[in-house]
Write a structure and sequence with these properties.
Length: about 400
């Protein structure tokens, strides 16, 4: 086995800002309670939108739209760095990977919606914070990180893919630690566009239920510090979990159509398991993409059956999107944090709003209530418009399978 393949990649810090609050403890409490944090959006006029509700962050004033997504990224990253017992400046052998779906789009809306016929000059301040890559570079400067910096934007698989990039950097010995942060802010443009595509439901998110009709968005940021085992040992920091492997692909078909997606989701899942050297029988739990899409949830269910075989019916699956909304660029990282919390707390968080079973989606989706469970291996799935899929394998720190 090569040295890179042997190198363990560990989770040593976590941080999150979402509709559930601005800490991991608040996030955990909301997941335990299984109560939706989605509410009517207050930060902008939602008249004319398909749905005026979302997972809005109330701890950051709605009027603070300039650099709002950047604020989220900074808050979550600081939490994760502090949780990992790190202090700025970080060693040179450190990096930053950011993930976002829409960057600072909300910052540019003032210019986009300007009355051109009035011939008044556009305020440059409207573009403050509009850059997709600015938060990653800002964090590197703030934390004194002199290693590589990257921003990943692959729609809803951005966060999971960013964790994969950081995993590769550490496995290859390029860096010893990486701050991975995913972020996005709600905006009128995003909700209008996805509403026009009928991605947004007109009522509640109901993943895997027969009456599911789409998703609702959330905003905020989630951050994870990944480290090599040697780096973590230098500080005697608590090891929260281990990233064992990941897979990423796309169906190379169409931007919005779902043809053949179940097959490519299954391929991404199997890639992650193969790299982790984990057999399907060892998977204790699946954190689903579970967006509430009629076809998407069915495709994911079929993919899980393909990869796990008969064990699919014995493996619990959940989606936390009905609790905080889809955090877009931060969602995959938020869901990875939920996986780590499940392993630490011995709890499966519920898929809420599940009130009518679908005979085609016939697996165990942990409906509506928490459940105690011993989880050693978790598989996290993400899928997106554009046909991208990503999966990542997480293990409790006590698990040494495949090392």
């Amino acid at each position: 086995m090569s040295e890179a393949k042997k190198r363990r990649v560990l989770v040593t810090g976590m941080g999150i800002v979402s509709a559930a609050g601005d800490s991991v403890s608040a996030f955990l409490e909301s997941l335990r309670e299984g109560v939706s944090c989605i509410s009517r959006i207050e930060g902008f006029n939602t008249e004319g939108l398909r749905n005026g509700y979302g997972g809005e962050v109330k701890t950051v004033p709605p009027k603070n739209s300039q650099g709002r997504s950047e604020i989220f990224a900074r808050l979550a990253a600081r939490q994760a760095v502090e949780d990992a017992s790190l202090r700025a400046p970080l060693p040179l052998q450190s990096g930053v990977v950011a993930s976002t779906h829409f960057g600072g789009l909300r910052c540019g809306e003032g210019a986009f919606f300007a009355d051109i016929s009035a011939r008044s000059p556009i305020d440059p301040a409207d573009f403050e914070g509009y850059s997709f890559s600015q938060p990653a570079h800002m964090l590197a400067a703030e934390l004194g990180i002199g290693g590589p910096v990257a921003t990943v934007s692959l729609s809803c698989v951005s966060g999971c893919s960013a964790l994969g990039v950081a995993f590769d950097w550490i496995r290859q010995g390029r860096v010893s630690k990486v701050v991975v942060v995913g972020f996005d802010a709600l905006s009128f443009t995003v909700l209008a566009g996805l509403g026009a595509l009928q991605v947004i439901t007109e009522e509640r998110i109901r993943p895997f239920a027969a009456n599911r009709s789409g998703t609702l968005l959330g905003e905020g940021a989630a951050a994870i510090v990944l480290e090599s085992e040697e780096s973590a040992a230098e500080r005697d920091v608590e090891l929260l979990a281990e990233v064992k492997g990941y897979g990423v692909n796309n169906n190379a078909y169409h931007f919005t159509e779902r043809d053949g997606e179940a097959e490519t989701i299954a391929v991404a899942m199997q890639m992650a398991l193969d790299q982790a050297e984990i057999s399907p029988d060892e998977v204790d739990f699946i954190s689903a993409h579970g967006s509430g899409s009629k076809q998407g949830d069915l495709n994911e269910t079929q993919a899980i059956k393909t990869v796990l075989g008969p064990k699919a019916y014995e493996t619990p699956i959940h989606s936390i999107k009905p609790i905080i909304g889809d955090l877009m660029g931060g969602m995959g990282i938020a869901e990875a944090i939920a996986c780590v919390l499940s392993m630490k707390e011995g709890i499966l968080f519920p898929t809420i709003n599940y009130d009518k079973s679908d005979p085609k989606c016939d697996l165990d989706y942990v409906p509506n209530e928490c459940r105690e469970a011993a989880i050693k291996i978790a598989l996290k799935n993400c899928s997106s418009i554009g046909g991208c899929n990503a999966s990542i394998v997480l293990a409790s720190n006590e698990t040494q399978t495949g090392t």
